[in-house]
């Protein structure tokens, strides 16, 4: 499964990159495949429990420094598929190259 999530600290001012980096650091250190872009971090794992534990820790890292935290998540649950982060992007690219 792949879960795209965004963690936004509230009440810390306009510059939130430092806080978001705390969350992404947790994801990076988890060892699970992930990608971060301008709006979301997507993390891929075998189960809800595995992925949600990483997201929970990422949110906690931001929550430790911010008075309020907003979280948005979107999940793609597709048993038996691995390396979805890469294969989904490659499929779109293949169509773009036609």
UniProtKB/TrEMBL annotation:
Q: Offer one Pfam family short name for this entry.
A: Thiamine_BP
Origin, by domain of life? Answer: Bacteria
UniProt protein name = MTH1187 family thiamine-binding protein
Q: Which organism is it from?
A: Streptomyces polyasparticus
Say which family it is in: Belongs to the UPF0045 family.
Q: Which residues form the Thiamine-binding protein domain?
A: 3-93
């Amino acid at each position: 499964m792949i879960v795209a999530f965004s963690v936004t600290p509230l009440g810390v001012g306009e510059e939130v990159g430092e806080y978001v980096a705390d969350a992404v650091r947790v994801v990076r250190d988890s060892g699970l495949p992930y990608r971060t872009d301008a709006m979301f971090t997507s993390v891929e794992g075998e189960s809800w429990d595995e992925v949600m534990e990483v997201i929970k820790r990422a949110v906690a890292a931001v929550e430790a420094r911010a008075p309020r935290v907003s979280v948005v998540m979107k999940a793609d649950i597709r048993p038996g598929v691995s390396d979805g982060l890469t294969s989904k992007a490659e499929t779109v690219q293949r169509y773009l190259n036609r």
